[in-house]
Design brief:
single chain, 370 residues, alpha/beta, TIM Barrel, 14 helices, 41% helix, binds ligand G3I
């Protein structure tokens, strides 16, 4: 079990209440988000629930509303791109931490936790790993480069980043096989264990995650992630957590399935997190109907996490529909986040907040009704 860093962080947040202060939420110094008329932020609701609520961050420096809105509602942050290999080591041997450092300053000056994303990730269609890495075919050369990369990046933020996605998307994006990515092909299936051992050595206190997409539903794909995690743990690999990305693009979160999957992985003795949540407008009907459906979906997602003791954080992949990767990949109109284009709270915001509050305390295991 490896709960300490995050639990410690929650303690700090409770004590300091530095994030998202809203006097309406405080009574005699205590947060009481369930009281009538109290209008808590997401961060305040999360503190009350005993979890972290995070968002992906990106640079929108010309938008004066972006940072204040982020700080208001979140107590954890993940850079959407600046900690990926292509950003931190764009040329072989040349590291660039300018963007990542800027986010660290933002996080630290606002008492926020940080998830580091990500150390080893190769997807043919995406740009996360530079070509000079993909060109290496000699195992010892790639092994040495991967070691240097992980030691340098994790070492730089040692003690400051509480969780790292060490290996991202070890499964094929479609299907349920292990993805034979470049690292697998050159180093063999042991590349995952090697990466975790390196990260462990570089920051012994960071919680180290496997992070995977499309595993919130029951089925062969989830089973493959379960078996992989189990196998790594049996080998003694220091996997401390499993991240369920939670891009709900093809189907909405199903409370029972998501909760069961989180529980099954947690039973292996690791923490679990929702790491990249966005839930597009699902279903049919007019806009109001679809927004209401999205409210329920956010409620179910948050409630499922809160129902599982080892689910300690949910990170959204952005927070305002003004900025979402989904627009640039799939076109506009999916509106997957809890604030709208103008930073106004959508029904999804209230669903998420209600899920955080409903899912804690005595209602912790109550399934939400539709
Ligand atoms: O940096 C260039 C910029 O110079 C240029 O002006 C711009 C023009 O489109 O493109 C910029 O790069 C894009 C970058 O996002 C901007 O942040 C890349 O082309 C684009 O591929 C990149 O996409 C990111 C993608 O990961 C690949 O790294 C998305 O923003 C990011 O949301 C997405 O996140 C992934 C997670 O890391 C892993 N799980 C899935 C998730 C969604 O795909």
């Amino acid at each position: 079990m490896h709960y300490e860093p995050i639990v410690r962080r929650i303690g700090i947040l409770l004590l300091a209440s530095t994030v998202a202060s809203s006097s309406a939420c405080k009574q005699d110094g205590e947060l009481d988000c369930r009281a009538d008329g109290v209008d808590c932020t997401l961060a305040e609701a999360a503190v009350q629930a005993g979890v972290l609520v995070g968002t992906a961050y990106n640079e929108f420096r010309d938008d004066p509303e972006y940072i204040p809105a982020l700080i208001n509602d979140f107590n954890s942050v993940t850079h959407e791109g600046a900690m990926k290999w292509a950003a931190t080591q764009p040329e072989r041997g040349v590291f660039d931490f300018e963007r990542a450092d800027r986010m660290m300053e933002l996080a630290e000056s606002n008492g926020m936790s940080v998830r580091g994303h990500t150390l080893v990730w190769e997807q043919a269609s995406l740009d996360a790993t530079p070509d000079y890495v993909l060109d290496i075919t000699d195992p010892e050369e790639l092994r040495a480069l991967m070691a240097d990369h992980i030691r340098t990046v994790v070492g730089r933020y040692r003690g400051r980043i509480d969780a790292w996605d060490v290996v991202n998307e070890p499964l094929e994006t479609a299907g349920s096989e292990i993805y034979e990515n470049h690292f697998y092909q050159v180093l063999g299936p042991g590349y995952i264990a090697e990466a975790f051992a390196l990260a462990r050595e570089a920051d012994p206190n960071a919680t180290l995650f496997l992070n995977e997409v499309l595993v919130s539903s029951a089925g062969a794909r989830f089973d493959a992630l379960f078996e992989l995690t189990k196998d790594l743990l049996e080998q003694g690999v220091p996997v401390h957590g499993v991240g369920f990305q939670g891009h709900f693009l093809t189907k909405p979160p199903i409370y029972d399935e998501l909760r069961a999957n989180l529980e099954r992985i947690a039973a292996l003795g690791v923490v679990v997190e929702l790491t990249e949540v966005d839930i597009i407008l699902h279903g049919t009907g007019d806009e109001a109907t679809r927004l209401e459906r999205q409210r329920q979906d956010y409620f179910d997602m948050a409630s499922a996490c809160l129902a599982v003791e080892a689910c300690e954080r949910m990170t959204l992949w952005g927070f305002t529909d003004r900025y979402t990767w989904i627009d640039s990949f799939f076109g506009a109109g999916f509106a997957p986040l809890p604030l709208d284009d103008d930073y106004a709270r959508k029904p999804a915001y209230f669903g998420l907040r209600d899920g955080l509050l409903n899912g804690s305390g005595s209602n912790k295991t109550t399934a939400p009704t539709r």
